[in-house]
Every structure is written in structure tokens, then in C-alpha cells.
């Protein structure tokens, strides 16, 4: 029997106009954009649908992305498709929590708004991130360990694509060493800070009281955390993992491999872009990937209802 995973992308896939057709055509999706606006105190229609630069600034990007993801999720749920497991990359973990019923959309929006603010505030001067292509994780970890200064793995995305993060000089040194050791390419990323680095521990600490103030429900639909790439079975672990997630590595490849090992054969990516679909194709040639980004994409789900 087919097992279905709902997966949610992270920051970087945002664009002006994301989710506009869901807002216009599906009432429950419109309600989610409105709810995100109420919980954040922001004009979500202006932020998501009108030309602006704020959408690419972390403190606004995160709430905008989550509004779009949960709006699309609700449309998928109305189709009658249910997940056997959920997961999300970085910010997308909050979409997974909503899909699993662990946290309400209102509470997700409340936390995500503050997460974006705290991560923006915590960004140190001189932070950087670089994508390293064509190198084994073990080798890259070894290189990072030899570099003076703060540099570590931010994202294990898929075979041959790992992102390093930390102090600008240390990241540049690690990238140069990786190139000399056989990496195919090292691509500096246009980001506003060294995300998923120990340099952002303070943002997680600020987020802790916000997480303490929301309801976490019993886990009835399994979900996998970024920090451990493992299932979370105890709801009391959720807040601590989300606090850690801000400054810890995102183990996305390991997360997908865990789901595949447990019999998941259909992955539904819910949110802007096709980032996770691309990663999945490099992790498994056999799994089915379906991305839901436009209203017409909902027709792809007809055979699963």
C-alpha cells in the first residue's frame, strides 16, 4: 500500500505572487492568509502579492512563506488526501507540524513571525553560507573541523549538495579547501546571515518563551524533526527541538532516507517552488514526487484521494 509524505520547503523559495490563486479561488486558503495577517500584525496581501523587497528579508520572508504553505495545505486537505508522515526543511518544519496537527495554524503563525524577527536580529556581521557540490559529507565535515573560526554544516540537502555556514572568512577557507579536495563547485549563497549555525544560538533562546506559550498537541500523525532526522513521538520534545533547529544542521537527506526506509513512496511538496522535489530525485529514482504550488496542481492528487 502506498505511503504518503507531506513535505514543506524552507526560506529561499519565496516570490511575489505565491499562493495568490489559492487566495482568490479557495475560501479556506484565503482564511489562512487572513489568519497569518491577524497573528503577525502584517498586511499579508501586500507582502505576498504586491511587488516589494520585504518578502526577501528574513523577518518577513518566514511569515509570508508559512502563510502560503498553510494556505496550500488546507486546499490539499480539502481534497481528502492525508499524510502518513510529515516533514519540512528548516522553516518548512512548521508546515509539517501544522499538517500533523501538532500545532494549530494560528500558533504556527505566532511562532514563525517571532522566529523570523529573532533570526534577523541575531545575524552577526560577517556571516556567510556556501553550497558545496560534489563532495561527501564525511569529507566536508572533516574539512570544517580543521578550519580556525566558526564553520559547520548547515544543510545536508541531497547527495552531492551540502551547505556550509558560519563566519565569512572561515566559510571561505573551508570552501577553498573543499575545492582543493575535489569538490566540483562551491557557490556562495545570497543570504542575510549564517543560518543553522551555532552563531544563531541566541535566536533559539529568544524563541523559547514564545514556544512555551503555544499549545502542542499529542502526535497522531508521525513527523520527523530536522535536528535528529528521526520521528518525534513525545510532544514534550517538540519545543526543545524547534529551539535547537535554529542553530543546528538540517538533516534533510537523512530525513528523506528515513521515510523511504519506512515505505514512503509518494512525496507531496506543498509550497512555493520545487526545491524538495529536486532533492528527492537525487536521493531516490523510484519515489514519486508531486509538487503543489498552483491551484491546477491539485488535480495531480486525484488518484490519491
What CATH architecture of the largest domain would you give?
3-Layer(aba) Sandwich
* Number of helices, where a helix is a run of at least 4 consecutive DSSP H or I residues: 12
| Count of strand segments | 8
Major beta-sheet overview: 4 strands, parallel
Give the CATH topology of the largest domain: Malonyl-Coenzyme A Acyl Carrier Protein, domain 2
| Uncertain residue ranges | none
Provide mean pLDDT, rounded. Answer: 95
Give the topology.
Elements: E1 3-8, H1 20-25, H2 27-40, H3 44-49, H4 58-78, E2 85-88, H5 92-99, H6 105-122, E3 127-133, H7 137-146, E4 151-158, E5 161-167, H8 168-180, E6 185-188, H9 201-212, H10 238-245, H11 252-261, E7 264-270, H12 275-283, E8 288-292
Parallel strand pairs: 1-2, 1-7, 7-8
Antiparallel strand pairs: 3-5, 3-6, 4-5
Helix pairs in contact: 2-4, 2-6, 4-5, 4-6, 6-9, 7-8, 9-10
Short description:
The chain is an alpha/beta fold and about 300 residues long.
Q: Can you tag this structure with a few keywords?
A:
305 residues, Alpha-Beta Plaits, Malonyl-Coenzyme A Acyl Carrier Protein, domain 2, 8 strands
Structure description:
The chain has two domains: 227 residues, Malonyl-Coenzyme A Acyl Carrier Protein, domain 2 (3-Layer(aba) Sandwich), CATH 3.40.366.10; 62 residues, Malonyl-CoA ACP transacylase, ACP-binding (Alpha-Beta Plaits), CATH 3.30.70. The chain is of the alpha/beta class and 305 residues long. Helices cover 44% and strands 16% of the residues. The relative contact order is 0.17. The mean pLDDT is 95. The chain is built from twelve helices and eight strands. The strands form two sheets. Strands 2-1-7-8 form a four-stranded parallel β-sheet, sandwiched between helices. A four-stranded antiparallel β-sheet has the order 4-5-3-6.
Amino acid at each position: 500500500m502506498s505511503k504518503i509524505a507531506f513535505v514543506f520547503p524552507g526560506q529561499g523559495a519565496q516570490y511575489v505572487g505565491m499562493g495568490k490563486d489559492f487566495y482568490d479561488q479557495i475560501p479556506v486558503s484565503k482564511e489562512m492568509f487572513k489568519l497569518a495577517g491577524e497573528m503577525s500584525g502584517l498586511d499579508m496581501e501586500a507582502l505576498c502579492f504586491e511587488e516589494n523587497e520585504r518578502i526577501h528579508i528574513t523577518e518577513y520572508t518566514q511569515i509570508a512563506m508559512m502563510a502560503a504553505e498553510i494556505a496550500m495545505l488546507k486546499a490539499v486537505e480539502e481534497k481528502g488526501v492525508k499524510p502518513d508522515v510529515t516533514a519540512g526543511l528548516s522553516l518548512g518544519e512548521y508546515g509539517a507540524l501544522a499538517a500533523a496537527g501538532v500545532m494549530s495554524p494560528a500558533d504556527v503563525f505566532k511562532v514563525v513571525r517571532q522566529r523570523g524577527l529573532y533570526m534577523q536580529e541575531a545575524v552577526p556581521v560577517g556571516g556567510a553560507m556556501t553550497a558545496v557540490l560534489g563532495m561527501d559529507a564525511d569529507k566536508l565535515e572533516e574539512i570544517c573541523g580543521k578550519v580556525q573560526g566558526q564553520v559547520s554544516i548547515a544543510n545536508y540537502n541531497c547527495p552531492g549538495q551540502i551547505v556550509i555556514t558560519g563566519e565569512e572568512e572561515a566559510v571561505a577557507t573551508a570552501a577553498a579547501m573543499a575545492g582543493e579536495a575535489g569538490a566540483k563547485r562551491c557557490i556562495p549563497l545570497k543570504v542575510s546571515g549564517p543560518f543553522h549555525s551555532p552563531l544563531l544560538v541566541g535566536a533559539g533562546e529568544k524563541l523559547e518563551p514564545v514556544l512555551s506559550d503555544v499549545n502542542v498537541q499529542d502526535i497522531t500523525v508521525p513527523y520527523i524533526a530536522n535536528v535528529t532526522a528521526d520521528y518525534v513521538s513525545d510532544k514534550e520534545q517538540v519545543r526543545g527541538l524547534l529551539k535547537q533547529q535554529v542553530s543546528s544542521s538540517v538533516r534533510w537527506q537523512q530525513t528523506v532516507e528515513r521515510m523511504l526506509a519506512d515505505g514512503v513512496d509518494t512525496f507531496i511538496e506543498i509550497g512555493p517552488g520545487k526545491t524538495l522535489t529536486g532533492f528527492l530525485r537525487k536521493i531516490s529514482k523510484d519515489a514519486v514526487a508531486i509538487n503543489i504550488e498552483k491551484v491546477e496542481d491539485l488535480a495531480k492528487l486525484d488518484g490519491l484521494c
